[in-house]
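New to this. Please check both lines:
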Amino acid sequence: METTSKASKPGSRFVAFLTASATLAIATFVSASSSNQVEQAGSLVVPRIGHAATALSDGRVLITGGHDHAGNLVAVSEIFDPGTQTSTASATLTTARVDHTATRLADGRILVAGGTGATAPLSSAEMFDPANPGAGFRTLPSTMSAARARHTATLLNNGRVLIAGGEATGTAEIFDPATELFSPTLWAMTTPRTGHTATLFSDHSVLLAGGNTDSMELFTPTDQKFTLNPTTMSAARTGHWAFELSNTRLLLFEGDTGDTIDEFNPSTGTLTLRDTLDAPASSATLLANGKILVVRPDLAGLYDADAVPPSPPFTAFDETSVPGREDPGRWRRGYAKPTTRSSPI
């Protein structure tokens, strides 16, 4: 695993796409020399949850799919510009969907795959080219081998995409951007997973962790095989986050079913229970300085995996600045979790 990070400077500002519903879905984290706070950056054009937020090549963010408070699917997409902190309406999905994936390919195009449609999970996929937004979303003639929702889609080093799991399926497949075709992997996953995480390592392998289980498995592109890791997490996880801190450190952070934080070393295959927070996070975002911005309905704070006692690993700050804190019901967990890295602006 290789990560390149720069230390945050006083006054630095980072975009954090919070797992919020309705209009308070975009916020920025401001780091100052004496204090930190979360500020509302803007409102979505269409209130939504269960959407996907994908960083584009030019630094803007494409927001697709999701549903509103009434449960109606949202087909119109929008693009958030960190420079102006505004979101504008963009193209409309050919099929409205929620809990899908939206992956930026090597050439800048966006692959939208799966998710749940009006009645059931979808096997369809569509493509969007930010360089030609007027063309809109285009349905691909090839469909996935299985309908999937809350799955993962990982861009591999060879430019292809590994699509794994989702809604009780233990299958996986590879998408080839050159042919725009989906092909089942030669081997099936060791166990079905949904709401799991997928982390690409520097040796080109992919770690699938959790998804209603405490197990992990490793995918190797050369033989397309999945191998169960003998190490298990401290708790079963789904809807959690996976943060890559260095070549030898991967944090498996909280989730819908627990508040623990595990640290996995891919070099040794060992896992250590790092911490337990006192409440679940609504949103967690890895900042450029290696700390994690945690937002909850009542407060925000920073988690530092390198904190040395007696310094606490989690430090709360200015809870009055948390957007939506007056209405904790606005904050929902388990949505838009693929967006885990921040963008300095």
Q: What stands out?
A: Residues 1-13, 17-25, 322-345 have pLDDT under 50 and may be disordered. The radius of gyration is 19 Å.
